[in-house]
Amino acid sequence: MAVGARSGHEEPEDRPDNPENVEPAGTPADRAESSGDSPNGGGTARQKPRSFWKELPLLVGIALVLALLIKTFLVQAFSIPSDSMQNTLQRGDRVLVDKLTPWFGAEPKRGEVVVFHDPGGWLENTQTANPNVVQKFLSFIGLMPSAEEKDLIKRVIAVGGDTVECKKDGPVVVNGKALDDKSFIFPGNTACNDAPFGPIKVPEGRIWVMGDHRQNSWDSRYHQELPGGGTVSNDEVVGRAIVVAWPINRWATLPVPKTFDQPGLGAAAAVAPGAIGIAGAVPIVMWRRRVRPVSGRQQ
Predict the structure, then answer these.
(1) For residue 160, which of 70, 204, 228, 294 is within the disulfide window of CB 3.0 to 4.6 Å?
(2) Where are the beta strands (DSSP E) in 75-196?
(3) Is the peptide bond before 247 cis (omega within 30 degrees of 0)?
(4) CA 237 – CA 46 distance, rounded (Å)
(5) What is the pLDDT of residues 15-57, one digit of tens each?
(6) pTM for the complete prediction?
(7) In the chain, which residue ranges form alpha helices assigned H by DSSP?
(8) pLDDT averaged over the chain?
(9) b/e 266-283 (16+ beta carbons within 10 angstroms → b)
């Protein structure tokens, strides 16, 4: 029996008299080669990980692309430049605007706070800031609000098909329903005493907007001489402002006030009485048609 036989396998012994002086498998020399530590640089050597500084440009590039995609398709930050939406929004607030749902056909709804591009002439005498190159770049990718674009932020009061009006000392009325705006307009303001209006029928595909600080807001009321009669096209709407993101102590969501959820506010509900009248008239007409032949025979 061969010396050194183990488990039915013959392995060469590491002895001085071994003519081939073969080193057993798995020796330190072999392990050195497989780990890439061999002085000859074995073919199975693993690559060393790249340093953080070499990967940093790639990480920054990916972050910038993601930021641009988020700004274009998901949300975008906007800065509040005026007092027209007090106290809901203060000058200097940063709001996040939902840009995703419009891609799926969502349209502005009553009570929402929306950002929209100047329809033409609304910001005619307003000067825009002159940002530096860095600010322009950060605005382009969405890491800071744009200072150059002429955008406005107001609350949607009426949508296409609605009839809206406001008489002096009276509330804003949409489709015959008075709005209770005390929960969101600036304390001490009236609904529209500075500029009563209406009734106005809002064209389809457009919205009527007003600021929450009614006596300090150049909104739809003040642009009725322009094309669109003071209304804003849905195509000009960037998106709905959903949250105040900055400063931190001002963080808050921007929900739709309850008064816009009252029953019968929709334009379709405004014609409901006529529909009810027609529905009520049908049974009467049918009953009369059955009765008439009988009375005719009696005559």
Answers:
(1) 204
(2) 75-79, 94-98, 113-117, 151-159, 163-166, 172-174, 177-178
(3) yes
(4) 55
(5) 445 445 545 554 444 444 444 444 455 555 566 667 777 777 7
(6) 0.65
(7) 28-34, 52-73, 133-141, 267-270, 272-298
(8) 75
(9) bbeebeeeeeeeeeeeee
